[in-house]
Amino acid sequence: MTTDTMEKRTTKKQEADSPQYEKTSKEKFVFRCIAGLILGGFLGGACAAGSDLLKDSVSETVQNIIHTIPFVQVHILPWILLVFIIISTIIGESFIKKAKTLIDSWDGEDDEHIAKADSFLNKASSNSSIQIIITQMLFALMTYNLMDNLQNKADAIMILVGVAIYFISLFITVTQQNRIIKLIKEYAPEKKGSVYDKNFQDVWLASCDEAEQLMIYKASHKTYAFMNKVFSCFLVTAVIAGMFVSIGMLCAFLIGLLWLIMICCYTKEVEKLEHGNN
Fold it and tell me: Rounded to the nearest 10 degrees, how much is the dihedral formed by the CA atoms of 193, 127, 124, 211?
């Protein structure tokens, strides 16, 4: 960190402690609240004025979609899942292969050389995580209202195909993650943990050095702050959508529940750390 950067951060901290900073922040907060109320009132009035037309239009669209959902779920989503798995697996394997080539040719001293390998492994790890999440989402969509979609033998076979593809995807991603960890340990033998261990995240974090832990903490805090905004926006969106479309109360409830769980978990961990419990 340069001297100029440290001076700028010190200046910002001093400014944040000043009465003028608090006054300016308060004014901006009040302005945002008033602007939000005005905008919300305007949009609410506009929606109320055209609510009947909007409801009829949306309802017709929703009904058309509902009629096609079972066919898409049973006969299209399994193949979309398969194509996605193939593409994401190829991408992950290419990153792993590039990283392994660099690790095998590393002389043990060139930090820039091994940093490139580390970058490829990070990309492979991110790709694997994204693959798991999207696979879970597609599987959830595919099995939604499952019992009603089992109309005939062909439907049942397609659902079984989808389930098989789902488990194959999980096996591939876990295997890739295990290989990534093993490659990292080749140039960073101090790293500990196994992807098959339920406490892997904690064990891995404990084996990281202070710089890596600080980076993880900062990234976690930024993610926490960002997700607060995401949950807030999604909850407002669900409330507004529920005024015009029968999305069910469960949608808003689950968003609020997940938001609440995150806040409670964060608060609990802060209290533990304040009392010296790791």
Answer: -60
Residue 165: Cβ within 10 Å count: 21
Q: Which two tokens stand for residue 59?
A: 């309802």
Per-residue model confidence as pLDDT tens digits over 217-252: 899 899 999 999 999 999 888 887 777 777 778 888
Residue 203 in contact with residue 158, Cβ under 8 Å?
A: no
pLDDT greater than 80 at residue 65: no
CA angle 212, 217, 221 (to 5 degrees): 150
Quote the distance between the C-alpha of residue 173 and its chain's center. Answer: 16
Contacts of 263 (CB under 8 A, 6+ apart): 228
Q: Are 62 and 245 in contact (CB under 8 A)?
A: yes
- Residue 135 CB neighbours (<10 A): 22
pLDDT tens across 188-221, in order? 888 888 888 888 888 888 888 888 889 988 998 9
CA distances, 119 to each of 57, 74, 178 (Å): 49, 39, 17
Amino acid at 234: F
Beta-carbon contacts of residue 20 (< 8 Å; ≥ 6 apart): none
The CA-based dihedral angle spanning residues 180, 181, 184, 186, taken in that order and rounded to the nearest 10 degrees: -110
| Angstrom distance (rounded) from CA 175 to CA 169 | 10
The amino acid that residue 100 corresponds to is: K
Q: What is the DSSP letter of 1?
A: -
Distance between CA atoms of residues 48 and 276, nearest Å: 54
Q: Are 192 and 207 in contact (CB under 8 A)?
A: yes
